[in-house]
Amino acid sequence: MSDQTTDYQHDDPHTLDANAVAGLLQEVFGAEMTAAAARCGHCGNRAQVGTLHVYDMHGPGIVLRCSICTEMVIRVMRRADGSYLVDARGAAYIRF
Amino acid sequence: MSLNWQIATVQALRDETARVKTVTMLVPGWTSHKPGQHVDIRLTAEDGYQAQRSYSIASAPTDQALVDLTVERVEGGEVSPFLHDEVIVGDRFEVRGPIGGYFVWDGTATDPILLAAGGSGVVPLMAIIRHRAMLGGGPACTLLYSSKTPADIIYKDELDRLAARNDGLRVVHTLTREQPSGWTGYARRIDQEMLADVLAETGKAAQVFVCGPTPLVEAAAAGLVGLGLAPSQIRTERFGPSGA
């Protein structure tokens, strides 16, 4: 969103939170995920998946980062054959 | 939980402000949503190119299959200019939803509610306000709503009307760029002092929903934590350029 539509400056205009990709996450995991609990494998912060920050949501994949330490928690890639690749090594756990 | 694409038919279109429009869709088989949830919209061009975006639901859940989306026009976007300039009543496109379980208000909750919005971030919060009104009141609710100018206030008449019911809904505007003459309200961005003012009436047990551009969301969330609220009381939804 540009400054034309808001008075609040964006330091990083490409940051959203996981609410914006809730549909994709539900498609991949087969369950509503934004209310699921996840613990960041880097800093240990425990929070609902909906609080994770999202980058590059219109690229071939999305990266979900911890809102506290900004390290990668979950990465989802859509492959050419239509399958998904989920890299969750940044999560100590995801409970859903 | 399956999430299938369904066909939505446009039932009505309404201008909210010069840049914001509400699209009412009929979605047969719609599963009633919770306030705060959203839908994904998928548009497919004749050559097969698809564009997909997520939009918050503006309407309260009802037993009808009607869903309102309120969409801000984002210049250069792929979906919002289409919804603003091209869609007419009777058009069809694909939707899936309702989606999301984190940024939702459970109508049975009894905690007071504090809503903080910037610009079109008011949309999912309006679903909460409308649902609360349909339930006949409910817990005390304050909306702190930041807009640039009076003409940018979305749902202004409806908010005035609902606040006049004196059923515990309070609407506090801040106008950051242009204020009408004689304006005595806030005229700056949401900050900790402003949050302390509204929290004095709402109380610190409030369940908080913040939606708007990232800087507003972060200022509000940090301000509230600074005032002693637990992070777990505060649900946030950031929107950015993807709303296009």
Overview of the molecule:
- The complex is a heterodimer of chains A (96) and B (244).
- Chain A is mainly beta and 96 residues long.
- Helices cover 8% and strands 34% of the residues of chain A.
- In chain A, a hairpin with a 5-residue loop joins β6 and β7.
- Chain A is globular.
- Chain B has 244 residues and is an alpha/beta fold.
- In chain B, 21% of the residues lie in helices and 32% in strands.
- Chain B is built from five helices and eleven strands.
- In chain B, the strands form two sheets. Chain B has a six-stranded antiparallel beta sheet with strand order 4-3-6-1-2-5. A five-stranded parallel beta sheet of chain B has the order 9-8-7-10-11, sandwiched between helices.
- Chains A and B meet through β1 and α1 of A and β6, α5 and β11 of B.
Oligomer classification: heterodimer
Widest beta sheet: strand line-up of chain B: 4-3-6-1-2-5
N-end to C-end Cα span of chain B: 27 Å
Tell me which protein chains meet in the greatest interface and how many residues each side has: A-B, 36 and 40 residues
Mean pLDDT of chain A: 84
Radius of gyration of chain A: 14 Å
Envelope shape of chain A: globular
Order of helices and strands of chain B: EEEEEHEEHEHEHEHE
Total DSSP E strands of chain A: 8
The span between the termini of chain A is 32 Å
Strand content of chain B: 25-35%
Largest sheet of chain A: 5 strands, antiparallel
